[in-house]
Design brief:
This protein is α+β, with helices and mostly antiparallel strands. The protein folds into 2 domains: 84 residues, 3-Layer(aba) Sandwich (Glutaredoxin), CATH 3.40.30.10; 106 residues, Glutathione S-transferase Yfyf (Class Pi), Chain A, domain 2, CATH 1.20.1050. Strand 1, helix 1 and strand 2 form a beta-alpha-beta unit. The model has no long low-confidence stretch (mean pLDDT 98). Bound molecules: glutathione. Glutathione binds next to helix 3.
């Protein structure tokens, strides 16, 4: 199995975290970040299914789209649900986190107009993030209080961990006791902890 992404965490890290937690054997293939040198990516881009990364190659078959890759790795390595309902509960959490992630990237990374950027960041910090964490804290309580779905560790918990770990303000989750406990539980899983300590450094 080969996971190709930039030498960044961003949209490649969810699959890496899942593969690490699963103890899977995979190649962590990294292309130089376009922020550092765009040439390697310009050469590679046309060979990808959608002109974007990440791409996972398993048994000669390429799969694109970060959350599809993450879901596939979870299903393959026992971090998905055991029935349609459990999978839907995991997908719901992941979709809610993905929606907020897009808003975070727009506000903190992509927007070039300074006034618009400030407005988007304010909205993210004051509305998007508190509303999401409030909803997820409630969901977590409704679902047994320990894991986001199915009363077991799943890829939804790992995506939550990744989202919270990459927030501009890492303190916010501390205001949500159940989410914070789950965040720390994932952070302290030996395989996750070990990966986070030894993974290549990158800005995002
Ligand atoms: N919906 C896609 C978005 C992928 C995406 O935007 N990838 C970015 C890096 S995070 C990319 O490949 N950018 C380079 C480009 O579009 O040329 C996913 O989740 O995988």
């Amino acid at each position: 199995m080969k996971l190709t992404y930039f030498n960044l965490r961003a949209r490649g890290e969810p699959a890496r975290l899942i593969l690490e937690q699963a103890g899977a054997e995979y190649e962590d293939h990294r292309i130089e970040s376009p922020f550092v040198d765009v040439a390697p990516w310009v050469a590679y881009k046309p060979s990808t299914p959608y002109g974007q990364l990440p791409v996972l190659c398993d048994d000669g078959v390429e799969i694109a789209q970060s959350m599809t890759i993450a879901r596939y790795c979870a299903a393959k390595y026992g971090l998905a649900g055991s029935n349609a309902l459990e999978n839907a509960q995991m997908d719901e959490v992941v979709d809610a986190l993905s929606e907020a992630t897009e808003k975070q990237y727009n506000a903190f990374l992509f927007e070039k107009d300074e006034a618009k950027k400030a407005e988007l960041q304010k909205k993210f910090n004051e509305e998007v993030l508190p509303n999401l964490f409030k909803a997820l804290e409630k969901r977590l309580g409704e679902r047994g209080g320990e894991y986001m779905a199915a009363n077991k560790l799943s890829w939804a918990d790992i995506i939550l961990y990744h989202f919270a770990a990459e927030l501009p303000d890492k303190e916010v989750i501390k205001g949500y006791s159940k989410l914070d406990a789950l965040f720390n539980k994932v952070a302290n899983l030996p395989k996750i902890k070990s990966w986070v300590e030894r993974r290549p450094a990158s800005a995002v």
